[in-house]
């Protein structure tokens, strides 16, 4: 009976580990925190000149608790706000930043939540389409036009905390590999979904001044993977001993 309980506990641990791997989260709660998701680099590091007048917002969203939407010159959907800050954007208008020898397209998130609030990015997708007035998501957004997906390898979210109050502040930078934006279409569409939203709007923007290239920190060890392998090896050893 004791052996059976031991086996059940080990298998339960493996199941929990696998579930955690299928619903990952990048924690960017602390100032200066950063990390990679599906080849893109996300950073809370402050960048020079990211105030009002130095950025060009191209999509604004607003709704309590959850919100979603995308930029277009066409019919606005979901929680996208109608304002001069929602419009189409050409790929050529998105700055290229070289980080450690790799070119990235730089996007920034201005989260206008009350100071200290939390926010979670649950979905983040980038498309390249042939015109700037396309709407009707997702029917008119073909998979072949999808250039980056936060959930590319697994269900992933980005956790933001201790946000800066007010507009015109870069609360997070998203650096998407420039090589991802292949093809002849030149209009960038950014579709995003947030949770824990409230108080004010969120907007995605690009910088209009010279960008200072950030530095990518040394990658952290894959501690969860290591713990999972350790548990699996311990299980194999226990099984051999108790044959």
Judged by helices, strands and strand pairing, the structural class is: alpha+beta
Shape type: globular
* Cα-to-Cα separation, first versus last residue: 15 Å
Mean pLDDT: 80
Residue fraction in strands: 35-45%
- Helix proportion of residues, in percent? 10-25%
Helical stretch tally: 2
| Series of H and E elements | HEEEEEEEEEEEEEEH
The total beta strand count reads 14
Overview of the molecule:
- With 243 residues, this protein is an alpha+beta fold.
- It has one domain (26-216).
- The protein has helices spanning 2-22, 223-241, and strands spanning 23-28, 34-37, 40-43, 55-61, 65-70, 89-90, 96-99, 102-111, 119-129, 146-149, 155-160, 172-177, 187-197, 202-207.
- The radius of gyration is 21 Å and the shape is globular.
Could you list some keywords that capture this structure?
243 residues, alpha+beta, 7-stranded mixed β-sheet, 7-stranded antiparallel β-sheet, 2 helices, 16% helix, globular
Overview in brief:
By secondary structure, the chain is α+β, with helices and mostly antiparallel strands. It is 16% helix and 36% strand. It has one domain.
Topology readout:
Blueprint (H helix, E strand, L loop, with lengths): L1 H21 E6 L5 E4 L2 E4 L11 E7 L3 E6 L18 E2 L5 E4 L2 E10 L7 E11 L16 E4 L5 E6 L11 E6 L9 E11 L4 E6 L15 H19 L2
Parallel strand pairs: 1-11
Antiparallel strand pairs: 2-3, 3-12, 4-14, 5-13, 6-13, 7-8, 8-12, 8-14, 9-10, 9-11, 9-13
């Amino acid at each position: 009976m004791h052996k059976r309980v031991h086996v059940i506990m080990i298998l339960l641990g493996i199941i929990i580990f696998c579930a955690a791997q299928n619903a990952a989260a990048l924690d960017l709660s602390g100032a200066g925190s950063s990390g990679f998701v599906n080849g893109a680099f996300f950073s809370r590091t402050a960048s020079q000149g990211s105030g009002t007048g130095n950025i060009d917002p191209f999509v604004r969203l607003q709704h309590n608790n959850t919100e979603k939407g995308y930029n277009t010159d066409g019919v606005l959907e979901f929680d996208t706000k109608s304002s001069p800050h929602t419009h189409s954007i050409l790929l050529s208008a998105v700055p290229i930043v070289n980080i450690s020898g790799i070119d990235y397209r730089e996007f920034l998130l201005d989260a206008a939540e009350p100071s200290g609030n939390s926010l979670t990015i649950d979905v983040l997708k980038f498309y390249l389409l042939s015109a700037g007035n396309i709407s009707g998501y997702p029917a008119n957004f073909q998979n072949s036009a999808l250039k980056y997906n936060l959930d590319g390898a697994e269900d992933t979210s980005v956790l933001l905390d201790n946000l800066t109050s007010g507009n015109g502040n870069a609360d997070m930078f998203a650096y998407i590999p420039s090589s991802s934006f292949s093809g002849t279409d030149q209009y960038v569409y950014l579709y995003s979904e947030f949770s824990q939203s409230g108080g004010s709007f969120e907007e995605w923007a690009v910088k209009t001044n010279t960008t200072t290239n950030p530095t990518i920190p040394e990658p952290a060890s894959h501690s969860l993977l290591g713990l999972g392998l350790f548990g699996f090896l311990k299980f194999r050893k226990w099984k051999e001993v108790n044959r």
